[in-house]
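User: Reviewer 2 asked us to show a designed sequence for the structure in our supplementary figure. I'm pasting the structure tokens here. Could you produce the per-position amino acids so we can include them in the response letter?
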């Protein structure tokens, strides 16, 4: 349960991709795009539907395992004060679990309430304000810039009665690095003493440097002048991340062995591999500035902290 709750906490942090807005008229494509981006960045509330699918393989020596993953989440977000509700399911390795989580600010700290296997637990996050500001997520979706030069127009697309202008949008390496750096304090708080802050910072710097540019696909509803969804092709990015993480793990492993052990350990570590063959994420936005408010369930508010829950099990 402890590992699952940590994953849900990380998902909540990673899941702060939000937004969209209103109107129509005789505007140019550029004006419609900028109106939609402004709507995202200034949104006070929104509902989202996110889905992610992935296929990956893990190998160690002669042993290998294929892993299919699917995640479907619905969320409601409010900006000021920031609070979120997330419900959905995560399936991997033939097993599926339901999730329900809430996050809100209490006494200057963010608290996440998570329901796993029918049991509620709560966890205090760290300096999430700093993390959000560093990542550009202290307002709804500042990962989308108002710089028109960052967008490349693709084909117009029609789905049912809706016409979309479709754009490639590139996040450069430095922006990715800034987004990842902002997560350090929150991850340290969530994972406690199991993570050394400096080591985590070093790893994130290496990962961010290895990723380089990431290109998203943005769908703009022409009639509503709203961003309808953003698609994230993640295969290349995840492979670069895994490669750098595995290099880091190998280096650390070799630092801790004797000279006589080094050859055997190196051979074992070289046999380890994690590869993604297909991974994509899509986030759709609805009811921008019109999201239905929610209340955190009483049983969640009364939940024990994770440490207290684990202590009672022991």
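Assistant: Here is a per-position design you can include in the supplement:
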């Amino acid at each position: 349960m402890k590992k699952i709750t940590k994953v849900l906490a990380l998902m909540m942090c990673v899941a702060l991709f939000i937004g969209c807005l209103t109107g129509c008229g005789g505007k140019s494509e550029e004006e419609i795009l900028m109106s939609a981006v402004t709507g995202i960045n200034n949104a006070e509330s929104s509902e989202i539907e996110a889905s992610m699918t992935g296929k990956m393989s893990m190998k160690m020596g002669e042993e290998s395992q294929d892993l299919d993953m699917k995640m479907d989440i619905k969320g409601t977000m409010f900006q000021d004060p920031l609070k979120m509700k997330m419900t959905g399911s995560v399936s991997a390795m033939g097993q599926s679990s339901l999730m329900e989580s809430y996050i809100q600010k209490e006494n200057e700290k963010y608290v996440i309430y998570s329901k796993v296997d029918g049991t509620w637990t709560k966890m205090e996050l760290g300096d999430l304000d700093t993390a959000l500001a560093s990542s550009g997520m202290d307002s709804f979706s500042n990962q989308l810039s108002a710089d028109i030069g960052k967008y490349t127009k693709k084909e117009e697309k029609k789905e049912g009665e809706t016409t979309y202008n479709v754009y490639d949008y590139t996040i450069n390496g430095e922006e990715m690095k800034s987004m990842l750096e902002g997560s350090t304090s929150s991850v340290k708080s969530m994972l406690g003493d199991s993570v050394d802050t400096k080591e985590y910072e070093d790893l994130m710097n290496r990962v961010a440097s290895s990723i380089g540019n990431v290109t998203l696909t943005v769908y703009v509803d022409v009639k509503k002048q709203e961003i309808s969804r953003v698609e994230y092709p993640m295969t290349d990015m995840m492979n670069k991340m895994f490669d750098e993480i595995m290099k880091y793990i190998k280096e650390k492993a070799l630092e801790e062995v004797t000279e006589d052990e080094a050859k055997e350990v190196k051979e074992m570590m070289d046999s380890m591999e994690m590869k993604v063959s297909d991974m994509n994420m899509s986030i759709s936005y609805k009811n921008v500035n019109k999201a239905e408010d929610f209340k955190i369930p009483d049983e969640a508010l009364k939940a024990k902290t994770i440490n207290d829950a684990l202590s009672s099990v022991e």
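For the response letter, you might also mention the following. The mean pLDDT is 78. The two ends are 13 Å apart (CA to CA).
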